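The data are set out underneath:

___
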Amino acid sequence: MINLSACYSPSLLKSGGRRSKEQLAELLDAINEILKGEDGAITIRHLFYRVVTLGLVPKTESAYKCLTKHLGKWRRAELIRLEAFADNTRWKYGRRRFNGLDDALEETVRTYRKNLWRDQPYYVEIWVEKDAIASIVVDEAEGFGVPTFVCRGFASLSSLHEAARTFRWQEHLGKQVVVAYIGDHDPSGIYIDRKARETLAEDFDVEVEFERIAVTPDQIAQHNLPTRPAKHGDSRARDWQGGCVEVDAMPPAELRQVICEAITEPRQPRKKLCGKLSVLCAYQTPNELAGSHRGPANARNALPYRRARAKGGCYLDEN
């Protein structure tokens, strides 16, 4: 049994309206077990939905706030790793500065990524409804050279104008633009991508293929995702049937798999998006590209590359 005495006063470890010592220890054990199965940091909201699914906490906003307080105590007591969670809502602004040309060149070599889509017939972006899952999406999509855009609900006219400029240029280069969309399954969530597509077409004369890859009714049933009633204040909820599911409820591993498949799996009538795309090249530096088309050994162990190989895709010509 984990010793929680360092986190709580004796009065808070008693039963009677509060969680008992045993219940808190059970919750902490379950959380650490969940975190062991993750490749990187997740959001606290993601974790909340996972423990809700396990029946350890109720699906209420007060339960979420309570969980956040417990996590703060446990992280300060080093019972949970501080780096286990990501906060995508707070940013630090400012340009990177260098200590001379050599320092700048070293950074260029370190951050260089080959454009995997230069010779592909498609230009692909992933759009996400909310910040909460952005770190997971970016982590997965970056390995394939696919940019991620966070809509934060309905995309603003300014952001869609910028997107239209990008899409027009890609069409000028002869590419078909495809947006893979990830959002909530609720009356407004299922309309966000539709509204973006309509605005791009009507206001900016840009036709874009949007493909919703999460959350879908099939995924809700397959993963037994927790549902909630439609919000009473949502004007689109009048004809809504069934429960609503937030994208935060998707297990991160499943979300990564969905993203990977959206980029690499065949889609009819489209061909496989990546074609002969070599995921390996995303990890090569200029020196490594000059030395060998195969790249360094450690790049071949990169997570997206391992997944592509495991799925049997032709992402690297080894002949």
